Amino acid sequence: MWYLCVFYHRLLDYRRPEIESLAQLFGEENSYSNFALEWKIPKHHHPDSPFHFVNLPSEDVARSVANRSILVKGIYELWGEGSSYEELEEAIRNYPEERKLPYLSPESTFKITVDSFGKVISFQEQNDRIKGLSYIPFKGRVNLKNPEHKFWLIETDDYGVNNGLPPVVQRRIFFGREVGAADRKLLPTYQLKSRTYLGPTAMDAEMAFLMANQALVEPGKLVYDPFVGTGSILVAAAHFGAMTMGADIDIRVVRDGRGPDCNVWSNFKQYGLPMPVGLLRADNNLPPWRPGLKEVFNAIICDPPYGVRAGGRKSGGRKLLKGAVDPYTVPDDKRVGHIPSTAPYCLSECVHDLLDLAGRMLVMGGRLVYFYPVLREDNSTEDCFPEHPCFKLVASSEQILSSRYSRILLTMVKIGPYSEENALAARIKHLEFRENHLKWLEDGNLHSSVFAPADAQLTASTDSRLSKEPKPKYRGKYV
Predict the structure, then answer these.
(1) Non-local CB neighbours of 13 within 8 Å, separated by 6+ positions
(2) How far, in Å, CA of 171 to CA of 49, rounded?
(3) Is residue 438 within 8 Å of residue 411, measured between CB atoms?
(4) CB–CB of 476/405 below 8 Å?
(5) How many helices (H) and strands (E) in the chain?
(6) Main-chain dihedrals φ then ψ at residue 90, nearest 5 degrees
(7) Per-residue model confidence as pLDDT tens digits over 374-401
(8) What is the CA radius of gyration of the chain?
(9) pLDDT digits over 221-245, tens only?
(10) How far apart are CA 67 and CA 342, in angstroms?
């Protein structure tokens, strides 16, 4: 059945992928590789409009999707729409009576809310619009606090008034019954500014919950984050009932934090969430799993280090990796509490190891959700992402962070078993990908590309002390 889906007007690129993921989670669709919903845009509306029509299997699925979603304001059974109130009245009168009568009975309670997009409607105007709906035979009692049925009258403004709206030729008016609505109290509860333990790369609460929705997190599933940091992603997964597990190469994060009452564990205590199954000091380049261990996790959700806000690290000192010194063996009396030395970990190698880990450890149909950086001015990297024979890319959503740099949220689903043949094919794909994008994938180059001077000629001066020109301004900004 077709429903009117009204989004909050933010993170536009993330809206449809989230709804499609949740529809698959709550629906009866078992095909994890070829699932998609039908969408339509209202008349005279732009794709960036917050109003979309979506075809969902049932009202129960629509209600579950709306209640779980982060970006959906509400999903409605549309009784009528029009470019004027006369057209709206005609559409509502033509809506089938058998669909309307169950919600207009004398025993029921109801409430009508007037909302708008791109304009402000005064309280008096709202009352006038509600009185104008007298042709609808409401027989129940009005209950403003806890009604059985909620009805919405939503009006958009004309694009021509220059109010920042996406292009709309003329205004549109919608009237419908609310099927489900998001709980926006979730985000203020988990906002970072009130969290006990934070780090420089802590994931924003809204984005963490979006990633959990993309990964189809639900009770009984095991979710793993190989770059756990302060645990923001695992907090979101635990809120939805999943068992969680994390790892990080920084021993200070997973062991001590900033003290007994300020660490990753304290973030879970703060919200009364189940503790992680375990937090490991582990290297993504040298995972600690037994060779025969496979298909353990239902989802892997992470934010790999790009080298912008935080650089990647892997085991092995610089001299050891370069062959300047021989490999060493830790004596038995020093194994307890030993922390290996680390060296830079380039992005291309990090992503390859992540895909290899996911191919081995995810169950069939499990999802890998992670962010990937993109230089917006580099056309050669546009829409070109890492590949793996075991995975299919089902969604990619871009978030612009600066004039030159954005990050893409990639959602991949496992469609094939892990084998030595697939591992070799993945290695070949990785080498091809690395060759095509070597100029910014290596460690250090992404940061220098993002924060490159606006005028490269100014940096070529042989003696900056003799130059009276001001220092070059940087286009990017720290994010």
Answers:
(1) 397, 398, 399
(2) 12
(3) no
(4) yes
(5) 15, 17
(6) -65, -40
(7) 877 655 444 578 889 999 999 999 888 8
(8) 26
(9) 999 999 999 999 999 999 999 999 9
(10) 44
